[in-house]
């Protein structure tokens, strides 16, 4: 019935179809190796051992051991993200607006690119060699000041130690993420503020920070999700003794540590929800702040 | 604006200390293997270990294959989205960001449930099948970085004119992709490739859970059993990461676009 259709539109239709065929491998790939595996776990979280629908797994996430793991992961992620945002911001600020020599900025940027990727097992080794019981800094503090950080209560295999270690990739990531925003702070704004009689403090409180807070909060969420999904550093540093949620999930995948496969799927679902909310908020904030920073 | 520069210097100095001290400490520690003297013994042992050679070679091969699959997947997609299917852009960008949202350990958990030996597509049933699954897992892991660098490179060239010129000279689609588009986005492709290499070479979680003999699990094993070799491995891993990032900068500075 369409034999009399406009040839031009028919030709256009055919071309659009070919383009769709071209992106099909990508769509299929993400479907089979990203969406469906994740969906598979989510479905499993709502099934019992026989495959029937149940909410029991979600309820069982309330077990004290699991709640402790989630809370510990949330604390480490929040602490390392907050400290990373603050210290990374100050470092980027010092380098970008501190009128330091020209070589400083590219050096910091290159190093940040390296350090933000230098995570995982080797990072754990580096901190063991630095702040472990026989580490260099531990030894120097002992010989120079006769101060034993381990006797004073410090432990690298602890909340504080792990947070300190995570900062090694969190601070550089913050530097990389916040630099465009700091570059976007126009010199004219500061000059305009001081022409109108504003002090430095007033400029920061009333001009710079209101513009910077969406990217800062966004960076916090990005760093938070970054730390929350991490496992290799903590695993290499502490073995399986430090019960982050990722380490619990690792043990569950390895050997059904919870003795309930479906509870394992619920564990994974909980992680997806937490990183999903965090990243979703980040994307939303990034799109909001994009119009200021040009 | 003529404030003192002391505070920025102090800030930069403290940052430099925090980042350099662990590297110095690790290097110092890696040299301490022989009592009373500094030596490269830990490095000699590591490099001579067949386990190191095999796992590093395995991870390097997997990384190269990951890059090839990733480029083949990303370049045509980013090209078509930019030229023909702009309406698809939000969907594709969302998909490329998903690997940052779903933790790697969750993705591999899903693979183990979906592609186990009793499933329709039993990829984990054989060693080669699991290798393939690991490559796909790494393509996913590097997708946000690879897509972004290729997409950025595509924006800097006029792909419409290039495509029309090639078409009017009678080029086929595969030829346009391989001989016109790919050479023009090589800076983006290479940046994405080196970043992928840096991510893949020491990756632990996915390789470990898929039981593949990769460099990440090897390092973890050495860390659990030895004293000085882990420090040497950390220095080697840092050097590899540094080399990858250095190559990205080198490629970017050699590109014709940056001379403007």
Describe this entry's structure for a reader:
The complex is a heterodimer of chains A (294) and B (260). Chain A has helices spanning 7-45, 56-60, 64-97, 104-117, 121-131, 136-145, 159-184, 187-195, 200-228, 232-238, 245-255, 261-289. By secondary structure, chain A is mainly alpha-helical. Chain A has two domains: 1-45; 58-289, MetI-like (MetI-like fold, Orthogonal Bundle). The radius of gyration of chain A is 25 Å and the shape is globular. In chain B, α3 (50-83) crosses α6 (127-155), α3 runs antiparallel to α9 (186-201) and α3 (50-83) runs antiparallel to α11 (215-225). By secondary structure, chain B is mainly alpha-helical. The mean pLDDT of chain B is 90.
Strand content of chain A: under 5%
Total individual domains of chain B: 1
Rounded to an integer in angstroms, the radius of gyration calculated over CA atoms of chain A is 25 Å
The Cα radius of gyration of chain B reads 22 Å
Elements of chain A, N to C (H/E): HHHHHHHHHHHH
Largest interface: A-B, 82 and 79 residues
**What low-confidence regions of chain A span 5 or more consecutive residues with pLDDT below 50?**
1-6
Question: What's the count of strands of chain A?
Answer: 0
Q: Looking at the structure, what is the overall shape of chain A?
A: globular
Which stretches of chain B of 5+ consecutive residues score pLDDT under 50? none
Oligomeric grouping of the chains = heterodimer
Layout of helices and strands:
The complex is a heterodimer of chains A (294) and B (260).
Chain A: H1 7-45, H2 56-60, H3 64-97, H4 104-117, H5 121-131, H6 136-145, H7 159-184, H8 187-195, H9 200-228, H10 232-238, H11 245-255, H12 261-289
Helix pairs in contact in A: 1-12, 3-7, 3-9, 4-7, 5-10, 7-9, 8-9, 9-12, 11-12
Chain B: H1 6-30, H2 41-48, H3 50-83, H4 89-101, H5 104-114, H6 127-155, H7 159-168, H8 173-184, H9 186-201, H10 205-209, H11 215-225, H12 229-254
